[in-house]
Amino acid sequence: MPAKDTFHHAVRNALIKAGWTITHDPFTLEFEDVNFYVDLGAEKVIAAQKEREKVAIEIKSFLRDSIVTELHLASGQYLNYRFALSEIEPDRTLYLAIPNDTYEVFCHSRFVQRILEHYQIKIIVYNPEIEEIVAWQSTTLN
Fold first, then answer.
1. How many structural domains does the chain have?
2. Sheet with 40-46, side-by-side order of all strands
3. Nearest Cα to 41, choosing from 62, 20, 60?
4. Which end of the chain is more exposed for a tag (fewer CB within 10 A), N or C?
5. What is the mean pLDDT of the chain?
6. Rounded CA gap, 51 and 44, in Å?
7. Phi and psi (nearest 5°) for 79?
């Protein structure tokens, strides 16, 4: 099993604060002969619909020198996880969790915006210092 990301506990705590129930830590996907370990699985009851929203969250810290290299690694991992999820548990939505300072850089990079839009990468923006979710984004950063 891979090591936990630097901000794993911060994101976990932020989700709990936001009313999510952590159901898996990690969320293991077994697809044929390959095992994937997404950082977290969580659920939240949507009162108005009386349904459960289920998510899988891959946490990234983006602490390396090159954000483009980090994005390359994270997006490849995200795409593999999303494919496996679509086959195994299609009602669970995958998100890539990124720190708020990385999000600010993403907002100013047209290349990063286009990659996120093109590959339809959903993101959660978190503040690791106060352990809170700042935003949930589908595919556009505007």
1. 1
2. 21-24, 40-46, 51-59, 92-99, 123-127, 132-137
3. 20
4. C
5. 89
6. 8
7. -65, -40
pLDDT digits (tens, 9 = 90+) for 47-62: 665 678 899 999 998 8
Name residue, tokens 């830590």: 25
Residue-wise pLDDT tens digits, 13-56: 999 999 999 999 999 999 999 999 999 999 998 766 567 889 99
Cβ–Cβ < 8 Å for 92, 53: no
Q: What would the two tokens of residue 110 be?
A: 């047209």
User: Does a structural domain hold residue 84?
Assistant: yes
pTM of the model: 0.90
CB 27 within 8 A of CB 8: no
* Token pair in block for residue 19: 């009313």
Q: Which domain does 69 fall in, by range?
A: 8-137
Q: Do the domain assignments include residue 82?
A: yes
- What's the CA gap between 52 and 14, in Å, rounded? 19
110 has a pLDDT exceeding 70: yes
Task: Retrieve residue 75's tokens.
Answer: 């997006």
